[in-house]
Q: What sequence folds into this?
DNA sequence: CCGTATTATGTCAGAACTGACATAATACGC
DNA sequence: GCGTATTATGTCAGTTCTGACATAATACGG
């Protein structure tokens, strides 16, 4: 279950216009996906550092363990808003968030 | 129409638990709101720099002028996801986004 | 192995967000 | 002032996201 760019676009009722426009939108979508990946990784790392279970973080967030798992899996049904809420709940500062967003993934394109 | 923390929490069906918990959640909510403000400001600045109208940006985003206006007004009905989509559509890099998130507002608390 | 603690995956009703539209308010040149 | 271009505010039906639940998979000590 890995809706990526393509699927997401189709879900939005896409009908490709100019190739240029499509490519640009792809790049923008890719940047957003990459950002989500970085944030989700940051959530997992901070939580692990604090030795908290997903269930514990979920409780603090008034969310559920399954949703935390999806956050860390960068599931497309998880919004950036939720990822940020999780990070702040884990004690991250805006500076920490900024760093996470700038930090490239281990081996991602 | 300025739903802030309080209203948002109530909208979520809040019932205050311990004072400590409430305060913590307030701080976290505040951090998120502050982040949204910074991003919305970044959208306005980038768009202005490019001398684009809200309508032009909206078209590029496949959105509407009114929603771009709400983005720049940091309206609570605008998600961080949408703000990021706008920034990337305006040519921002993850690094730019990170900078925006770290940059304090002119005179905010 | 077996318990059990933790994490992953699927599903869905309800809540939040979105684009679009209408229309009001502002800004700016003429 | 008047036109008009741009931005602001309000509303709402349709889509997306969310929490919760069930349950499967994995990790790990005994």
A:
């Amino acid at each position: 279950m890995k809706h990526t760019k393509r699927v997401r676009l189709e879900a939005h009722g896409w009908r490709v216009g100019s190739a240029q426009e499509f490519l640009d939108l792809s790049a923008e979508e890719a940047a957003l996906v990459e950002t989500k990946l970085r944030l989700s990784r940051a959530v997992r790392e901070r939580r692990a550092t604090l030795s908290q279970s997903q269930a514990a973080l979920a409780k603090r967030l008034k969310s559920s363990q399954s949703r935390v798992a999806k956050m860390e899996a960068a599931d497309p049904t998880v919004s950036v808003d939720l990822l940020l809420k999780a990070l702040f709940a884990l004690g991250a500062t805006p500076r920490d968030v900024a760093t996470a967003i700038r930090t490239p993934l281990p081996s991602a394109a």
